[in-house]
Design brief:
By secondary structure, this protein is α+β, with helices and mostly antiparallel strands. It folds into two domains: 205 residues, Jelly Rolls, CATH 2.60.120; 100 residues, Arc Repressor Mutant, subunit A (Orthogonal Bundle), CATH 1.10.10. It contains twelve helices and eleven strands.
């Protein structure tokens, strides 16, 4: 992409930033009042791209009612987290992301020219359009879904973006698209945002990977958990260079469960989370969990919980 086009887009969004509604709305949480940023985009927008540049100031502690993924494009800044009662520094090339209602206060270092590119996503749109595609990473999945079951969560993620990934390039593409908005800009942003989030999921998995012990059975179970929507016994055999029959025997002996039982438990665990925490149709949940048709999902759910998915939703 032309550098001049990119610079012009960054400048345009930087100038637009001050025109957005950053009013602190007062909300009550556990009997206490707190500041809240509400969705600054239009009601028709599900995704907006913002460019924030500051030369040194501290925000009031506040919360948001949307997901935000902030990439430090230039410079560095501090974020003060209420839950953890500490200050962390987000350096250039690092990502800082928060859930809806997560609280923090941004503080730019004095005399530091800092530019932050933010991808803001409405909560409902995020759960419907992006969350199912990110469910293969258990830790990230629970982080992203937590606001649906814990309204005032204070979790955040923070890690360095590796230079060889495409996150910065995707962000620059989104900046250029959003700076010169067209009628189909939201349609263009969706696949770019999905690619952006998938790259984040990949980076997050590498940064937070828990290495299973040397026992093959534990490594296999971990692999099933990370690929529960597509994994097959044949694929695992190829991945770990074992015969399928040997893997079945190994899991029975050391885990006490078959491959099918382990996979079913993982899918049913996520099914409950998605049914409880999102407004996704049952059909979309079935697809996200790796079921080829709704009937298979309904049967598996009923056999496992002795209740249908829709009956479960009504019981909430």
């Amino acid at each position: 992409m032309g550098q001049s086009v990119l610079c012009a887009a960054v400048d345009r969004l930087r100038n637009e930033f001050s025109t957005l509604d950053w009013t602190y709305h007062i909300v009550e949480i556990d009997g206490q009042t707190e500041n809240m940023f509400c969705w600054p985009g239009t009601s028709e927008e599900e995704i907006i791209i913002v460019v924030h540049q500051s030369g040194g100031r501290q925000e009031l502690f506040h919360r948001h009612d949307y997901f935000y993924f902030n990439y430090t494009y230039q410079g560095e800044y501090d974020s003060i987290s209420f839950k953890y009662d500490h200050r962390i520094t987000i350096h250039e090339g690092e990502l800082y992301a928060g859930q809806p209602f997560a609280g923090h206060a941004l503080c730019v270092h004095d005399n530091k020219k800092t530019t932050i590119i933010g991808v803001l996503i409405q909560k409902t749109a995020f759960c419907r359009s992006f969350l199912p595609m990110l469910s293969g990473n258990p830790k990230l999945f629970h982080f992203l879904l937590d606001p649906a079951t814990n309204e005032f969560s204070d979790e955040f993620i923070h890690f360095k973006i590796e230079d060889d990934c495409n996150i910065r390039t995707l962000l620059e593409m989104m900046v250029i698209e959003y700076a010169d908005r067209q009628e189909d800009t939201q349609a263009v942003l969706k696949p770019l945002t999905l690619s952006f989030l998938m790259q984040i999921a990949r980076q997050y998995a590498c940064a937070n990977r828990e290495t299973a012990s040397g026992r093959p059975s534990e490594k296999i179970v971990q692999y099933i958990g990370e690929h529960f929507d597509t994994v097959t016994l044949k694929e695992i055999a190829k991945r770990f260079s074992y015969h399928p029959n040997y893997i079945s025997t190994l899991l029975h002996r050391e885990v006490g469960k078959s491959f099918s039982q382990i996979l079913l438990e993982l899918r049913m665990e996520r099914a409950l989370i998605l049914l409880k925490g999102t407004n996704l149709p049952v059909e979309e949940i079935a697809l996200a969990l790796g079921y080829s048709n709704n009937s298979n999902f309904y049967k598996a759910f009923r056999d496992y919980f002795h209740i249908s998915p829709r009956e479960y939703i009504k019981s909430l």
